[in-house]
Amino acid sequence: MPNIGPLELAIVLIIALVVFGPKRLPELGRSLGRGIREFRGSVTGGGGDDEDDEPPQREIPAGDPGPAVADEKAEPVAHKRP
Fold first, then answer.
1. Nearest 5°: phi and psi at 48?
2. What is the 3-class SS of 11-77, one letter each residue?
3. pTM above 0.85, yes or no
4. Where are the domains of the chain?
5. Residue 30 backbone dihedrals phi, psi, to 5 degrees
6. Angle value at C-alpha 19, between 13 and 20, nearest 5 degrees
7. What is the distance between the alpha carbons of residues 67 and 50, in angstroms, rounded to a whole number?
8. Is residue 74 scored above 60 in pLDDT?
9. Mean pLDDT of the 52-76 span
10. Can you state the angle between helices 6-20 and 25-44, rounded to 10 degrees?
11. So what's the pLDDT on residue 2?
12. 1: number of CA atoms within 13 Å, CB side?
């Protein structure tokens, strides 16, 4: 099997850019990387990082009003006291 040099890689990337276009190329790279990661995880038995899992929810104490809410202009708004 012949070695792949920088000239061959450049030719393949130029052809991919012409065929798929500059807007679709990053999306294709992301999906290819995600597929390789999933395949590698299934072959090795998993235990990798699962992107579909939700992060654990933080419990808010009863007296804590929670995070400040931004108004329509995305400016922080002070908590309102009852």
1. -80, -165
2. HHHHHHHHHHCCCCHHHHHHHHHHHHHHHHHHHHCCCCCCCCCCCCCCCCCCCCCCCCCECCCCCEC
3. no
4. 6-44
5. -65, -45
6. 85
7. 27
8. no
9. 60
10. 120
11. 76
12. 1
Tell me: pLDDT of 42 over 80.
yes
Tokens of 69: 């809410």
The single-letter DSSP state of residue 4 is P
The pLDDT value given to residue 39: 93
Dihedral angle at the C-alpha atoms of 38, 40, 41, 44, nearest 10 degrees?
160
Residue 10: which residues within 8 A CB-CB, separation 6 or more? none
DSSP 81: P
Q: Which is more confident, 23 or 78?
A: 23
Q: How far apart are CA 6 and CA 36, in angstroms?
A: 22
User: What does the pLDDT average to over 54-81?
Assistant: 60
Helix or strand holding residue 1 (H, E): none
